[in-house]
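Render this sequence as a predicted structure.
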Amino acid sequence: MAAQPLHELCPAGPGAEAAAIGFGLGLASAWGGQVFWAGEEGVFAEEGAPYPPGLAQFGLDLKRLIVIRAAKREEVMWAAEEALSASGAVVICSLSGRGKPLDLKATRRLLLFAERNHARCLLVRPLAEASAAWTRWRVAPAPSSDDPHELGQPAYALELMRNRGGPAGARYTIQWNAHARCFDERFKEKREAVFRQEARQA
């Protein structure tokens, strides 16, 4: 996923917007480099303003994070394109479901800006048809596997809905590993635990 310039993260339903943004923040942290987060004012009003201690939990270097809040969608898109002009940058572009959906031309512009400057863009928006993104993910929150009496690591249920580079339809449950700054696949961890148990019993 990291090698491609444009990916789309779609909330699985009402209330899943924070999960889609959280997944994007985790990817941005894992990829490293300068991070730009451009969003509509309505998105921040509904989901809450960026909270520095929470962002730090994703391993984001706050000195390398620039947050752009704009009243109009056109301003957000302009800011995202400008940010993608920074070589190697990671840009999170978060849009609300209000107003007319982006057309294919708008997503192609993001793709071209990202390709030209070896940058990456994560487009967070409600599910839509037209898109030039390499992959499209449906994102929902998932229960943490940590102690239920403690604040566990963020976990996400993912469905790969579109994949220009191969088959789609795969489903994953992943959990953010704050120490390693990466996502762990929940089912992979379970398989490894089963293999270790079978090895002890052999």
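Summary. The mean pLDDT is 86. The two ends are 38 Å apart (CA to CA).
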